[in-house]
Amino acid sequence: MANALTLLNHCAEPRSDYFMKRRNFISVLATLPLALSSALAFAAKRSTADIAALREQWRDLVPEGFQPPSVADTVSRTEAEWRQLLTAQQFDVLREEGTERPGTSPLNAEKRDGIFVCAGCELPLFTSGMKYESGTGWPSFFTSIPDAMNTKRDFKLIWPRTEYHCARCGGHQGHVFDDGPAPTNQRWCNNGVALKFLPTRA
Ligand SMILES: [Zn+2]
Q1: Ligand 1 centroid – CA 122 distance (Å)
Q2: What is the C-alpha to C-alpha distance for residues 129 and 115, in angstroms, rounded to an integer?
Q3: N or C: at which end does the chain have fewer Cβ atoms within 10 angstroms?
Q4: In terms of C-beta density within 10 A (0-12 exposed, 13-18 middle, 19 or more buried), how is residue 123 classed?
Q5: CA 171–ligand 1 middle distance (angstroms)
């Protein structure tokens, strides 16, 4: 900047000043289509067909020897039974709709192939192929395994949010927002403590 100013002062002739300003304006313009095209390229990274394939073929990532329970085989337990089965933190999130502190889950950094199952009943909810880095400090996904979750409106904060929970045991998982990556634009913001990760290969 100092150099540019010095240059302007040194050749303070109106004509060259005009050309310099014009050149700067043109170079700003030139960067715009590039920024736009890279944003579009990012958005076009996954097609709707890719998302459908991820959802349909989630079983490809199930580790050998793990039998995923059926969502139809619902789980219902008393509060005392859940307290016995879960850690205090898991109970707070899954059964009381608590929220873990952001950035605390080891699952934020999980990048291996595998599936994320409900910590309450082991129903598969997401695969590693559905995960992305949202920068929020909570494990985030742009789609989910079909029929794994039920949703409800939540008015705990001033604005309404969409809460979602495991369709098998009813355990609270997180909230789904519409600011995720294209083409789904979904951001399933999940409490890491409500999930268990099962790597495809040990
Ligand atoms: Zn569950």
Answers
A1: 6
A2: 9
A3: N
A4: buried
A5: 5
pLDDT digits (tens, 9 = 90+) for 9-66: 333 344 444 444 444 544 444 444 554 545 444 545 899 999 999 999 999 999 999 9
Residue-wise pLDDT tens digits, 92-129? 999 999 999 999 999 999 999 999 999 999 999 999 99
For residue 17, what is the DSSP state?
Answer: H
Question: How many angstroms separate the CA atoms of 159 and 175, rounded?
Answer: 13
Domain chopping of the chain, boundaries: 4-199
* CATH dotted code for 4-199: 2.170.150.20
Q: How far is the CA of 19 from the centre of ligand 1 (A)?
A: 66
Location of structure tokens 């329970």: 69
Residues shown for the chain: 202
- By CB atoms closer than 10 A (0-12, 13-18, 19+), residue 88 is exposed
- Is this structure's pTM higher than 0.90? no
